[in-house]
Amino acid sequence: MASQADDDLAPTKTEGFKVGEKKTVEEYAKLDEGDESLRRWKESLGIGASSGAPLSNPDDSRRCVILSLGLEVEGRDDIIIDLTAPGAVEALKSKPFTIKEGAEFRMKARFRVQREVLSGLNYIQVAKRKGIRVSKDQEMIGSYPPNTETTPSYEKKFALDEAPSGMMVRGHYEAVSSFTDDDNVTHLKFEWSFDIAKNW
Predict the structure, then answer these.
(1) Could you tell me the end-to-end alpha-carbon distance of the chain, in angstroms, rounded to an integer?
(2) pTM for this structure?
(3) pLDDT at 98 over 80
(4) Which terminus of the chain is more exposed, N or C, with fewer CB under 10 A?
């Protein structure tokens, strides 16, 4: 039975949408070989002869590796968390971000796709204050072919967001986030925290 936390992190489904048949990179490469426009489209996705050698790590079975998370605020240095560093994911909960009330910010993620086409990667975040859910946000990241020498990683900048403001919203928040795809594979799930403050 799924827990409430798991239900909170379930992506919103679009009614009538069906995930397409899963294909390997080789199957996509051979698909309609004689169709020139389809060949160009596949090459734009990094599937084909001109896309370079794949960068998959044979010792890492993950299809999608989240390399870093960042917070961008205009006029301030980006905060980047290298998730490849030992203990980085576990440290997120105990080292909160501080966000000034009313500030506009955006999150970003850098990631690598290995071996297979990644379909419908989503970022889902649930924030709670004093144990009560105050928000659930979902960002569609998209579908990506495996990374190659010519494209060693991908970066997705999320939609611009604005921190709430006022005395009632200042304080400490706990969040749970996950990166999940159309195949319901969770590539990373982590707890973290942030503070909304009057000043930086």
Answers:
(1) 42
(2) 0.78
(3) yes
(4) N
